[in-house]
Amino acid sequence: MEKEYMQSKCLNSDIINIIQNTLEMWQLASDHDIRTIKVDLDDIIESIKQEHFVNSTDSKIYRGIHCVVHNFIWDALMPLVRAMFTEEDTYLYQKSKKFCKFGKTLDEEDNYLSTISCTSAIVELSMMDVYKSPLEMLNCLCTSYDLIYAELKSALVTVISKHSDRELEIPVVNNEEVIHLVCKVLIKSQMLHFSSNLFYIKLFGEQILKCDQNMRSILNNFEVAMNHIMTLDESTMKSGDLEDGITACEMMKLLSEEERSDVRYSCNLEFEKRKRLVSLVMTSTAEKNLVPSDQSKVFI
After folding, report:
1. Ramachandran region of residue 103, left (φ > 0), alpha (ψ -120 to 50) or beta?
2. Which of 97, 204, 221, 249 is the most buried (most CB within 10 A)?
3. Closest to 95 (Cα-Cα) out of 196, 197, 188
4. In this structure, is the dihedral angle defined by the CA atoms of residues 261, 267, 268 and 269, taken in order, positive or negative?
5. What distance in Å separates the CA atoms of residue 182 and residue 66, rounded to the nearest whole number?
6. pLDDT tens digits for range 212-261
7. Which CA distances in Å does 220 have to 95, 186, 200, 227?
8. What is the 3-state secondary structure (H, E, C) of the chain?
9. How wide is the angle at C-alpha 293 spanned by C-alphas 292 and 299, nearest 5°?
10. C-beta of residue 92 within 8 angstroms of C-beta of residue 225
11. CA 223 to chain CA mean position, Å
């Protein structure tokens, strides 16, 4: 979205190729020191902005240039970023995989949170590694967070509707409950490079985060969730609802089959349930780069 906006505001219709050529001609101070490369990329972005968007203070233009630059540079940058967090990425992935395999759950007691599947958020978050720029990864986190809240609100409505005589006793959603669901989504997404992705976002997306409190807060909640999972003692976990769910990979396969298949299956409750999930996920993830606009749902 920011890329298209940036193009629309530039007098030169060939701005994308100009950015690519600038990157190719720029003499980087280092090709292996990650923080030195970050300084160079900041200088490149500022140079392009000053030359082709003179005196512009529009943050969307900066984001657009930033997004294009990092899309071009990511393939060269990725091995350096991944290598720094190989151990952390592997540990989180293996732990998430183990929790899913043995049906471990974070629920300490039965409550309305245990009924929330967050399937749409799981599928959205599992796509994070596809993106190349900090902004796109941030938008992925924000969309996942937005979908978690959609599921949470739906669950609250369901609970309240069953007890209409207590409709004024709407439970207050606190940060601990939000983190609980973010942990659940992160575990079931079985992310391969989540720790390195967060480092990449925080370092190379520093200026974007500095200007956007909403994104900072959401990023912080995902980081808190990741750290919580990393320190969990598996022996204290109990068997629970994770084993009854559907993993991100299974859901993506289901989505793919739904789009390709013309075969009519016999109707049964399980098929109808999965069909409803497919419909929900396809609807929820149809619009990419959706950033939550409801500031009231941000907890710091």
Report:
1. left
2. 204
3. 188
4. positive
5. 28
6. 999 999 999 999 999 999 988 766 555 544 434 445 555 555 555 544 44
7. 21, 14, 14, 11
8. CHHHHHHHHCCCCCHHHHHHHHHHHCCCCCCCCHHHHHHHHHHHHHHHHHHHCCCCCCHHHHHHHHHHHHHHHHHHHHHHHHHHCHHHHHHHHHHHHHHHHCCEECCCCCCHHHHCCCHHHHHHHCCHHHCCCHHHHHHHHHHHHHHHHHHHHHHHHHHHHCCHHHCCCCCCCCHHHHHHHHHHHHHHHCCCCHHHHHHHHHHHCHHHHHCCHHHHHHHHHHHHHHHHHHCCCHHHCEECHHHHCCCHHHHHHHHHHHHHCCCCCCCCHHHHHHHHHHHHHHHHCCCCCCCCCCHHHCCC
9. 75
10. no
11. 11
Q: Whole-model pTM?
A: 0.75
Rounded CA-CA distance 170/166 in Å is 8
Task: Quote the CA–CA distance of 176 and 109 in Å, as a whole number.
Answer: 14
**Residues making up the chain, counted from first to last:** 300
Contact between residue 218 and residue 225 where contact means Cβ atoms under 8 Å apart: no
Nearest to 45 by CA among 15, 79, 75: 15
Residue-wise pLDDT for 34-65, tens only, equals 999 999 999 999 999 888 887 777 888 899 99
Identify which of 70, 67, 65 has the alpha carbon closest to the alpha carbon of residue 288: 67
For residue 109, the model assigns a pLDDT of 45
Question: Residue 157: is it exposed, middle or buried by C-beta count within 10 angstroms (0-12/13-18/19+)?
Answer: exposed
Q: And the tokens for 252? A: 């993506």
d(CA 124, CA 136): 12
